[in-house]
Amino acid sequence: MGGALAIASAYMRCVPRHLPRHLVSIADLSRGEIAQILDRADRYWALADEPVKKLASLRGRTVINMFFENSTRTRTSFEIAAKRLSAEAVNISGSSTSTSKGETLLDTAENLEAMSPDAIVVRHSFGGAAAMLARKVRCAVINAGDGQHEHPTQALLDAATIRRAKGRIEGLEVAIVGDLAHSRVARSNILCLARLGARIRLVAPWTLIPRGIEQIGGDETRERVRIATRLEDGLDGADVVMMLRVQHERFDGEAPRFPNTRELSRTFGLSERSLGFARPDAIVMHPGPINRGVELSPQVADGPRAVILQQVSWGVAVRMAVLERAILGDLPVEGAWG
Ligand code: CP
Predict the structure, then answer these.
(1) CA of residue 3 to ligand 1 center, whole Å
(2) SS3 166
(3) Strand order from edge to edge, sheet including 283-285
(4) What is the rounded distance in angstroms from the CA atom of residue 141 to the CA atom of residue 323?
(5) 168, 205 contact by CB (below 8 A)
(6) Ligand 1 center from residue 334 Cα (angstroms)
(7) Phi first, then psi: what are they for 80, rounded to 5°?
(8) Whose CA is nearest to atom 6 of ligand 1?
(9) pTM over 0.85
(10) Cα of 78 to ligand 1 centre, how many Å?
(11) How far apart are CA 139 and CA 312, in angstroms?
(12) Residue 79 · residue 89 · CB < 8 Å
């Protein structure tokens, strides 16, 4: 056996292997597993203040970020997260891949897998893209947003932000306001927050509320989710107000769901006045990108109750935890924190 192969073979015998831990949906995670990710992210939060922001736990590992939709926060934070754990991060965008020449997503993924990455992070407009890849490739697959289906790491970073701001999630009243019809962020948050014991109000005109959305997690969400079609009702007593952008890019060919954006903004937009319906200590969240002056007034977006940039910071810490779990397994390897 050649030298390199012998070393690799010895390494394989020494390092315990495990099946890849995909993260396709929040539904894949138990309450305990969510808590484990949030606890691990807590340890990584402080790293951002260190002059040297580097740990060794994923040294020698490779993460491919494969984004077929635009992204600022998710793509950048996955790259930073991988690099802070000493992994190699490779970024490819949809327009630069051979999918533009007709190659399928699956063929693309299998060709990338032939280069032996440890994890593929994928964003795609097709709801189900991450699940499809997870069934076909051997490395871990992490869903960075699939169509209108789910965005699990967004929900985890939102949970981390709420937990830090409020000290708990259990028993909180969380209002999710806006374009629920097209929001993968809302779906993942409903599943995650219900599993962590929050109560959720979905706030929008009927035309932006998918039928049966309160039941996406079965009894767990049916018991914890209620619908409000007036902003005043939905925000009354809320501890957390999570605003959503109208996703015009996903309206493709649909009949209009509201008369115009100005009217939607007037009735469901969050201003200093309408924030008064919520609890005086309510925090304001938004996954970004914000449409200033539409779903959120600039005064609220930049005001003292907004935790929107904290959400972005938690994105790095949470994605470090998610990558580590995907590649190493649940338990930290001895010395991995060093
Ligand atoms: N929240 C979020 O997914 O933002 P990006 O589209 O910029 O990644």
Answers:
(1) 44
(2) helix
(3) 225-228, 199-203, 173-177, 240-243, 283-285
(4) 10
(5) no
(6) 33
(7) -65, -40
(8) 71
(9) yes
(10) 11
(11) 27
(12) yes
* Separation of alpha carbons 162 and 338, rounded Å: 28
- The response to whether residue 73 sits with its C-beta less than 6 Å from ligand 1 reads yes
pLDDT at 25: 98
What is the residue with the minimal CA distance to atom 1 of ligand 1? 287
What pLDDT does residue 120 have? 97
Task: Evaluate: CB of 315 within 6 angstroms of ligand 1.
Answer: no
Backbone angles phi, psi at 64, to 5 degrees: -105, 120
Name the residue with the closest Cα to ligand 1, atom 3: 74
Give the pLDDT means over successive 10-residue stretches in the chain (338 positions): 44 51 96 96 94 96 96 98 98 86 91 96 96 95 97 98 98 97 97 98 95 96 97 98 88 74 91 98 97 95 98 98 92 44
Give kind and range of the element (H or E) at residue 228: strand 225-228
Tokens of 80: 């930073």
Query: Does residue 62 carry a catalytic annotation?
Result: no
